[in-house]
Amino acid sequence: MLKITQKFLVLAMMIGVLVLGFVMAPMARAEDSNANAVIHLNVSLQFGSRGDAVKALQTLLAADPSIFSGANITGYYGNITAGAVKKFQKKHGIPAVGRVGPMTLQAINDLFNAAPLAVSQDAATGQDCVMIPPGHLIAPGFIKNHGAVTAPTCQVLPPGILKKLGGTFPPTGSDHTAPVISSIMSSNIGANSALITWTTDEDSTSQVSYGTTTAYGSSTTMITSMVKLHSVVLSGLSASTMYHYQVSSKDAAGNNAMSADFSFTTMAPDTTMPVISVVASSNIATTSAKITWTTDELATTEMAYGTTTAYGTASSDLSLSTSHQRVLTGLTAGTTYHYQVSSKDASGNIATSADFTFVTLVSDITPPVISSISASDLTTTGAKISWTTDEMSTTEIAYGTTASYGSSANDLTLSTSHQKTLVGLTAGTVYHYKVTSKDASLNTSSSVDLTFTTVVADTTAPVISAISVSAITGAGATVSWTTDENSTSKVYYSTTTPLNMATAFSSSNSVMATSHSVVLVGLSATTHYYVVVESADASTNASHSTEQTFITI
User: Fold this and answer.
1) How many angstroms separate the CA atoms of 71 and 239, rounded?
2) How far apart are the C-alpha atoms of 67 and 88, rounded to whole Å?
3) What residues contact 70, with CB distance under 8 A and at least 6 apart?
4) Which of 151, 106, 150 is nearest to 13 (CA)?
5) Residue 510 has pLDDT above 50, yes or no
6) Strands, DSSP E only, in 354-405?
7) Which of 64, 106, 98 is nearest to 81 (CA)?
């Protein structure tokens, strides 16, 4: 049987400890039923950790009375375990930080590698077991918890481990790689809180250990949601204090990763009240007013108001803002009101303004004064009615072919300049109309009855005159003429007579004018051409000239 020289290994296997966080390397069974096994601890542990991995760590530490003498194997990583880890780290030349990280894991695993265990078969039971040297001294911590002084000559292995003998543990393909932590950052740092964020390369849990030293002492509740983007808020911190912190994430397979130490300093406590400025009253009416102000930091919106400096009425909005506004309603017309504004920041510092006043408007009983009424832009089917008032008021018109009206056109927005265009009228017809305007206090003014007459329908075609043909070439010519009213320009042309406008060529211009000129192109040389000009006015009344003639060169 191979002699075991390390107490750590004896204790771990004597109690059958092979839990999450340990790896048993492949073992080849020898003919005499003896084989070697090497155990590795591959899980980082820290203050607040719990479970079988912690129990295994405590059992291993208890093998050395100078490190973990008389301590209970509880499975909880508290102050006692952290102190024992520091002793172990100091003994092995590792920075004594009290948590099991990569350097400490390496030291423990080096010990494991140096002393593999022997596996044999119990003669009485026929079961495989680990061979322990008889009379091996058990650490005091183990004596206290297990009631034994020396190890048995053969410790029966748990069935789960037996199944793995001669193979790999964990099984091939299982995940025993811890998440990779990166992008660790502290932000949103206040006097009493901070936000810690980081990322991992696989979905995992979120937890932060923190404190005023690298021993930390406090841990957040583990967030068990499996994510790659981690965010944890630390609260209840002291102002103006440097905090150390370490983040940890555990994946679905139980592999735990811990970061290095990081630190941040909380803000000094806020004792400065907001600065209130630009206090103003506006939109003052008979029964309402708007009060506004600004602050140099986010703060509440609160004010007191009344007819004396005792105020008596309050209006508030406790959401935080730098731009503040309160609309006061239910006021009395023609009354002086006192008001005072105040704002409280997130730290409870409150600022209060001096006393201010405003006077509500006296009740308005005067209707608008209507003037400058006119009807313009008259056409056969439409007209524009316009007027002015001495105060903001509505725009309303009643109209019809009699003084009873019967039709209306309204715009209820308030203005001092009023205009409405009436459409769908009948040509050559007298229309009666009356304008009305109503102010914000519903005081109403109406004009007397007025009239306008729409334009009579145009049935007269333009008169065409002064037709001439000029600039004659072998391929073109210019036809010119005049009309007695604005109208279009069109020339029909053909080499035959009488000219048939339905089949003749044409060239036209839709611009309305009294002087007309149309250029003909693509003509044939030395050819006799016949032309008729046409002009149509805005009412589509059209005139046609007599047939004219010219010969191209």
Assistant:
1) 37
2) 6
3) 140, 141, 144
4) 151
5) yes
6) 356-359, 370-376, 383-400
7) 98
Joined together, the tokens standing for residue 147 give 């009631």
Higher pLDDT, 497 or 170: 497
| 274 within 8 A of 293, measured Cβ to Cβ | no
| Residue 132 token pair | 């322990």
Instruction: Say how far residue 553 (Cα) sits from the centre of its chain.
Output: 79
d(CA 95, CA 19): 27
Q: Which residue has the tokens 């725009």?
A: 395
Pick the closest to residue 100 from 58, 158, 148, 146 (CA basis): 58
Of 431, 423, 381, nearest to 404 by C-alpha is: 431
Where are the alpha helices (H) located in 237-331, listed in sequence order? none
CA distances from 338 to 311, 342, 443 (A): 7, 14, 30
Q: Which among 492, 477, 478 has a CA at the least distance from the CA of 523? A: 477
Coil, strand, or helix at residue 407? strand
Cα separation, 174 vs 471, in Å, equals: 100
Helix (H, G, I), strand (E, B) or coil at 84: helix
289, 259 in Cβ contact below 8 A? no
Q: What is the pLDDT of residue 174?
A: 59
DSSP H or E stretch at residue 314: strand 313-328
In the three-class reduction of DSSP (H, G, I as helix; E, B as strand; rest coil), residue 130 is classed as strand
The residues that bridge with 477 in the sheet, in sequence order, are 520
Which pair of structure tokens corresponds to residue 182?
Answer: 């990166």
8 A C-beta contact, residue 197 and residue 181: no
**pLDDT tens figures, 108-138:** 777 656 544 344 445 555 544 444 333 333 3
| Residue whose C-alpha is closest to residue 177's, from 52, 43, 18 | 43
| Distance from C-alpha of 86 to C-alpha of 77, rounded to nearest angstrom | 13
Helices (H), 252-408: none
- Phi, then psi, of 381 in degrees rounded to 5: -130, 10
Which candidate, 386, 406, 388, 410, places its Cα nearest to that of 397? 410
Tokens of 261: 């130490």
Token couple for 466: 């002064």
Q: What does the pLDDT look like over 6-21, one tens digit per residue?
A: 344 444 443 333 333 4
